[in-house]
Amino acid sequence: MQSSAPTVAAYLASLPDDRRAVVKKVRAVVRTNLDPLYAEGMQYGMIGWFVPHRVYPPGYHCDPKQPLPFASLASQKNYLSFYMMGLYGDTELSKWFRKAWQQAGKKLDMGKCCVRFKTLDDLALDVLGEAIRRVPAKLYIERYEAALAKQQKSRPARKR
User: Fold this and answer.
1) Mean pLDDT to the nearest integer, 63-87
2) Residue 98: which of 86, 89, 85, 87 has the closest Cα?
3) 147 or 69: whose pLDDT is higher?
4) For residue 139, how many other CB atoms are within 10 A of its CB?
5) How many Cβ atoms from other residues are within 10 Å of residue 91's Cβ?
């Protein structure tokens, strides 16, 4: 469920009280652990944390007008979701994340980089915060560029 809210404050104000409280708590954990080179704002209808163009001028390869997405938080119709692009494509970090979540005694409902949850009690907030802390912006950019280079190498050359 994509929001049309233009700002994080407007997005938060649009949420029901119970959802707003959960989103604020998760947002606080992210902001506490986030590398200062990242920025916060609305991106793709969600609260987003991204590498701004002032830090990474090329932007996101899918839409260079957009800053490079790093993490997002959204209130969906039936659940909340937290997207961590820093986990996507990083096998070691992903393994650590899944193991740490399990050790926290929480059930993980996760796709490749999206953690779905209904309540704050579903989350291992310390694990979430540590995952954010483990991926500073410069490291994220290095991994992103390496993945793009690998992807471009594996594509067959176009015929002209």
Assistant:
1) 94
2) 87
3) 69
4) 13
5) 8
- Residues 76 and 61: beta-carbon distance below 8 Å: no
Task: Please tell me the pTM assigned to this model.
Answer: 0.91
Kindly give, in sequence order, each residue whose CB lies less than 8 Å from that of residue 159, ignoring residues fewer than 6 positions away. Answer: none
**pLDDT tens digits, residue range 94-140?**
999 999 999 999 999 998 889 999 999 999 999 999 999 999 999 99
Domains of the chain, first to last: 8-154 (3.90.1150.200)
Are 14 and 113 contacting, i.e. CB atoms less than 8 angstroms apart? no
Half-sphere exposure at residue 122, Cβ-oriented, CA atoms within 13 angstroms: 15
| Structure-token pair, residue 133 | 């802390």
